[in-house]
User: Which sequence fits this backbone?
């Protein structure tokens, strides 16, 4: 046995040594088997639906997908977001026969899924089920497509989720850059550049959603693909029978407005003060997929941008020059409307202009200097080798064919593209670079920190300021009622004396409390330790939440957040909200009473008692209702924009159980209401001045 083991080890060692002596170009590999694309069976039903069938018996699964000729391009300008919300609520709201809850339970019990959605140029619906459940669940899927119930609560939930997304759209600099660059190239008022806004979402009604569905979810707009473990002849009969109940309707014309390619360059800047780097995008209008130079342009694009570190932008701007955290680009060519050519970089604020110049230099170099044979071949290899992933599953094969049919391309469009890539020459790359790239007509957009960037952008021309503020429907303005300024001054002084009986405080106010906050997911309990320095406008809040502890701090006008050992800048909207609450704090009002413009508006009944009403001129206007005996501010009201509601709401804060410590009185119970609904309760356990 020992001899056998020793001989095996000997021959293994010899084999390893022999192989180790070979270099990579000496290794020999067998030829790969040619991949045969399986045949897809197609037919059209009497009501106009085109079906695509592909058998795959590897697993006992059946995957059915539907493409619907519709899209956000059809949204009215004042109801932007209609298509997307419709696509969401078709599934989330369930159907007339199967409510959302019962549908969810039914699918969960069978490890199945059904999904719907609508994008800019198409809609989709899908079902993935076990083979044994297909016959039972197919009618359920048809019912969902044909008879969605669109309950009001699910519509409101989808609208709230959309508004929540709107409220966060300025959180990330890169997201801002791509959104505003699209608007810059296409035009902010064009169908390709419009944003979904609070007001457009508020304008959408249930009737709008029902009409949108009824007009577009018809047989003439549908293509159905199915892949899985079935016999095509049997499946054809099942599909024809199931989908026959969908009305034929009329095919929806998707009108994609033409764009005028107005040549010209511009330099544009969007200020985001909480970042220390710049996101730069530059480019112009791209092209269409049916361009005969499509393959050559994509080879050129990969030479410039690449899909990995092989592109020139990454090699030169990032690696050699060290100017970027990332460098990227794309010459996109859409089917229905022109794409966009862009090149971009994320760089330090102080190297913004240097990075812009470096990218322009690489674009011009591509036009002026032929690429090398080695660079051409490596780029083509990258494209051709990655093409294998286009056909790595039967689902991908079927999806590709249906997509080609929907977009009006030939069945072998992808194979034609690969053949043309193989035939692309060095001369082709330089020719299309000279014809389709316009470095002297670039629209440049920078999103970054204005103070840190300074005047770097002036060299490119007059800088256009890009307004990224989120429009808020309605206003905080209210009808002005004349009041008594003298009496108002007397009341605010009485309130200040009540809150600070010993006069101004020099230390920091520290208090511990528990907050119970209402969220869309239910109530959340938070433990809070708040430290406020009213002399330096410094705020520190240590919040213990179910997911961990977060420290929020505002000092010297800068906001930051710490969680799990990581620190990040505070989002401007959050900092603004915290500072607004700080300026409404009773102690702040007491300390700054001499700077406040106040008026007495009379006695009013609030919370079951007569209170003195004074108005504080601020943004927004603050109303204080004071106890005539104690002068404590029992109620505070103001109007505030609610991102979830997408509108201005009345906020009411009711304070009680006032207690004194170290010469400062604060309420130990505070209940907050927004739009008439209670949304938070704060209970203080202790406070002090340190």
Assistant:
């Amino acid at each position: 046995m020992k001899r056998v083991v020793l001989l095996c080890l000997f021959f293994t060692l010899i084999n390893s040594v022999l192989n180790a002596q070979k270099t990579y170009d000496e290794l020999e590999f067998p030829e790969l088997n040619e991949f045969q694309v399986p045949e897809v069976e197609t037919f059209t039903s009497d009501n106009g639906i085109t079906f695509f069938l592909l058998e795959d018996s590897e697993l006992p699964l059946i995957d059915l997908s539907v493409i619907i000729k519709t899209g956000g391009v059809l949204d009215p300008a004042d109801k932007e977001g209609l298509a997307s919300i419709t696509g969401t609520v078709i599934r989330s709201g369930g159907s007339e026969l199967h409510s959302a809850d019962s549908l969810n339970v039914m699918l969960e019990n069978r490890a199945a899924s059904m999904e719907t959605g609508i994008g800019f140029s198409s809609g989709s619906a899908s079902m993935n089920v076990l083979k044994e459940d297909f016959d039972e669940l197919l009618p359920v899927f048809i019912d969902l497509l044909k008879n969605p119930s669109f309950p009001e609560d699910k519509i409101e939930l989808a609208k709230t989720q959309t508004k929540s997304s709107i409220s966060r759209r300025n959180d990330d600099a890169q997201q801002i850059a791509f959104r505003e660059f699209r608007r810059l190239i296409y035009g902010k008022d064009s169908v390709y550049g419009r944003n979904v806004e609070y007001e457009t979402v508020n304008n959408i009604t249930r009737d709008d959603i029902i009409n949108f569905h009824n007009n577009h979810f018809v047989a003439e707009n549908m293509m159905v693909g199915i892949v899985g473990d079935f016999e095509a002849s049997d499946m054809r009969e099942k599909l024809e029978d199931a989908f026959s109940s969908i009305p034929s309707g009329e095919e929806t014309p998707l009108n994609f407005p033409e764009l005028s390619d107005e040549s010209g360059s511009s330099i544009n800047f969007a200020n985001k003060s909480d970042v220390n780097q710049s996101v730069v995008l530059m480019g112009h209008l791209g092209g269409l997929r049916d361009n005969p130079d499509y393959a050559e342009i994509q080879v050129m694009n990969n030479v410039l941008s690449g899909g990995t570190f092989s592109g020139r932008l990454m090699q030169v701007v990032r690696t050699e020059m060290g100017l970027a955290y990332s460098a990227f680009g794309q010459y996109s060519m859409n089917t229905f409307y022109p794409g966009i050519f862009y090149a971009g970089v994320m760089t330090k604020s102080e190297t913004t202009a240097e990075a812009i110049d470096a990218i322009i230099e690489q674009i011009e170099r591509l036009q002026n200097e032929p690429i090398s044979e080695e660079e051409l071949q490596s780029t083509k290899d990258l494209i051709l080798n990655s093409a294998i992933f286009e056909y790595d599953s039967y689902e991908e094969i079927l999806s590709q064919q249906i997509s080609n049919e929907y977009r009006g391309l030939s069945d072998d469009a992808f194979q034609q593209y690969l053949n043309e890539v193989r035939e692309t020459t060095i001369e082709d790359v330089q020719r299309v670079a000279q014809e389709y790239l316009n470095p002297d007509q670039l629209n440049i957009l920078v999103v970054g920190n204005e103070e840190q960037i300074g005047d770097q952008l002036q060299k490119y021309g007059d800088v256009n300021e890009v307004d990224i503020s989120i429009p808020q429907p309605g206003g905080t303005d209210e009808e002005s009622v004349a009041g008594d300024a003298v009496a108002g001054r007397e009341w605010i002084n009485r309130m200040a004396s009540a809150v600070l009986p010993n006069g101004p405080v020099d230390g920091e106010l520290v208090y511990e409390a528990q907050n119970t906050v209402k969220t869309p997911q239910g109530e959340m309990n938070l433990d809070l330790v708040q430290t406020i320095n009213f002399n330096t406008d410094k705020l520190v809040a240590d919040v213990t939440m179910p997911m961990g502890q977060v420290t929020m701090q505002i000092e010297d006008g800068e906001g930051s957040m710490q969680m799990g050992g990581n620190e990040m800048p505070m989002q401007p909207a959050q900092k603004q909200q915290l500072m607004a609450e700080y300026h409404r704090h009773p102690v702040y009002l007491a300390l700054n009473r001499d700077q406040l413009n106040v008026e007495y508006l009379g006695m009013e009944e609030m919370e079951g008692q007569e209170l003195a009403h004074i108005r504080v001129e601020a943004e927004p206007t603050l109303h204080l209702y004071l106890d005539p005996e104690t002068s404590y501010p029992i109620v505070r009201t103001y109007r505030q924009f609610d991102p979830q509601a997408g509108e201005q709401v009345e906020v009411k804060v009711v304070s009680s159980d006032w207690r004194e410590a170290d010469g400062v009185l604060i309420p130990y119970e505070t209940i907050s209401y927004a739009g008439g609904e209670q949304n938070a309760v704060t209970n203080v356990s202790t406070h002090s001045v340190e």
Notes: The mean pLDDT is 91.
